C-alpha cells in the first residue's frame, strides 16, 4: 500500500513538472481545434473548458493567448481572419481596446499607419463637434437634444459625472445629425457604454459599484477624455451601421429579429413556445428590449463586454448571432418559464 501511494505521488509530481516546463507555444496545441473546417469569422472553439486544466496550465494558456494576440496585432499587417478567430473566445482585457478598434475598422490593419490614421480620425470628430453641436439650441433640433438629455439623466453610470454626460451628449447629437434618416432613437445611448468603459480602461482602472456608478482609480486628463470620446463615436458609428434597420422608421430590423427568435423557439422548444401562446405572452413584449439594447440592461456590463468580443468576431454578430444568444437564454430558463403562469408580474 505504501509503495502504491509513493508511486501515485511520484506520478503526480512528474506531471506537475511536465506542465510547468511546457513551452508557451506548445501549450496552445492542447486546447484548440485547428482543423480547417473553421470558416473565416468563426471562432476556434475550445475542446474542453479551461477550468478543466491545472492552474499552472491555465496560466500558460492565458499567457499563450495574450502572446498570440500581440503577435497578430503587432504584425506589419494584421490578419483580421486570425484576429476574429482569436477574439471569438474572448480578448485579454489589456488588449481589448486595440482589438475592438481593429474589429470595428477604426484602426487600419497596417501597423505603420495606425498612429497617423488615429490622429486624423480624432481630429475629424473634433471638426464634427464644431460643425454640428451648436445646432442643439436650434428650434428644429432642440426636442431631439432634450430627449438625449432625458435618457442620459437615467443612466446610473454617469451619475455625478457631468464631464462624461457632456461627452455622451456630443457623441449622440453629432451622430444623430449625421444620420438624419434615423435621428436619435431611445436605446442608442446604451450602446455607447461598453465602448466607453473599454476605451476608458486604456488610461485608468475602471470599476462599477453595486449601483452601477462609475469609479476611476486615477484622474484622467481632458486630452485623454477627448481621445476616448472620439474613439467611442467612431466605433459606435460602425456598430450602428451594421444594425441601422433596428432604428429606422418602424424598426424593421428589430421586428424581424423578434420574429426570428419566435421562430427559433417554436422549432427547438415547442413546449416553451406553446406555453407562451397559452398564456398570451407575445415575444415582442420582452424581446423588443433585448434587440433594442442588445441585452445591456439585462446582463452585468462585464458579461456584455465579453459577449461583444464574440459579436465583433462574427459576421452579423449584433443582429443574427445576437438572436441565437437570446434564444440560448430562453432555453437555459425554459423549465422555470414553463412553470410560470402569471407573466403579468414575471420579468423575463
From TrEMBL:
Residues 90-315 form the Rab-GAP TBC domain. Pfam families: RabGAP-TBC. The keyword Glycoprotein does not apply. GO terms for molecular function: GTPase activator activity. Keywords: GTPase activation. It comes from the Eukaryota. The keyword Ion transport does not apply. InterPro entries: Rab-GAP-TBC_dom, Rab-GAP_TBC_sf. This is Rab-GAP TBC domain-containing protein.
Amino acid at each position: 500500500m505504501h509503495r502504491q501511494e509513493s508511486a501515485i505521488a511520484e506520478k503526480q509530481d512528474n506531471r506537475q513538472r511536465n506542465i510547468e516546463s511546457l513551452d508557451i507555444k506548445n501549450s496552445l496545441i492542447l486546447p484548440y481545434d485547428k482543423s480547417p473546417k473553421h470558416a473565416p469569422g468563426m471562432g476556434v472553439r475550445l475542446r474542453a473548458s479551461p477550468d478543466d486544466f491545472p492552474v499552472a496550465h491555465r496560466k500558460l494558456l492565458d499567457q499563450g493567448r495574450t502572446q498570440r494576440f500581440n503577435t497578430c496585432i503587432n504584425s506589419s499587417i494584421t490578419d483580421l481572419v486570425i484576429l476574429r478567430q482569436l477574439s471569438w473566445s474572448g480578448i485579454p482585457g489589456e488588449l481589448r481596446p486595440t482589438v475592438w478598434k481593429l474589429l470595428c475598422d477604426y484602426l487600419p490593419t497596417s501597423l505603420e499607419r495606425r498612429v497617423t490614421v488615429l490622429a486624423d480620425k480624432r481630429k475629424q470628430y473634433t471638426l464634427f463637434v464644431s460643425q454640428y453641436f451648436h445646432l442643439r439650441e436650434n428650434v428644429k433640433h432642440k426636442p431631439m437634444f432634450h430627449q438625449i438629455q432625458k435618457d442620459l439623466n437615467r443612466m446610473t453610470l454617469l451619475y455625478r459625472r457631468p464631464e462624461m454626460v457632456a461627452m455622451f451628449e456630443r457623441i449622440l447629437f453629432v451622430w444623430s445629425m449625421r444620420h438624419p434618416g434615423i435621428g436619435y432613437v431611445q436605446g442608442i445611448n446604451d450602446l455607447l457604454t461598453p465602448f466607453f468603459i473599454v476605451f476608458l480602461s486604456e488610461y485608468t482602472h475602471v470599476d462599477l459599484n453595486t449601483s452601477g456608478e462609475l469609479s476611476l482609480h486615477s484622474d484622467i486628463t481632458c486630452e485623454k477624455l477627448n481621445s476616448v470620446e472620439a474613439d467611442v463615436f467612431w466605433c459606435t458609428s460602425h456598430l450602428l451601421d451594421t444594425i441601422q434597420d433596428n432604428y429606422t422608421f418602424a424598426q424593421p430590423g428589430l421586428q424581424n429579429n423578434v420574429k426570428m427568435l419566435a421562430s427559433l423557439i417554436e422549432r427547438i422548444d415547442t413546449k416553451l413556445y406553446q406555453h407562451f401562446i397559452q398564456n398570451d405572452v407575445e415575444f415582442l413584449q420582452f424581446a423588443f428590449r433585448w434587440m433594442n439594447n442588445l441585452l445591456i440592461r439585462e446582463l452585468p456590463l462585464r458579461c456584455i463586454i465579453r459577449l461583444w468580443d464574440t459579436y465583433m468576431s462574427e459576421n452579423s454578430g449584433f443582429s443574427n448571432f445576437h438572436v441565437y444568444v437570446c434564444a440560448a437564454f430562453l432555453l437555459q430558463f425554459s423549465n422555470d418559464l414553463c412553470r410560470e403562469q402569471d407573466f403579468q408580474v414575471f420579468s423575463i
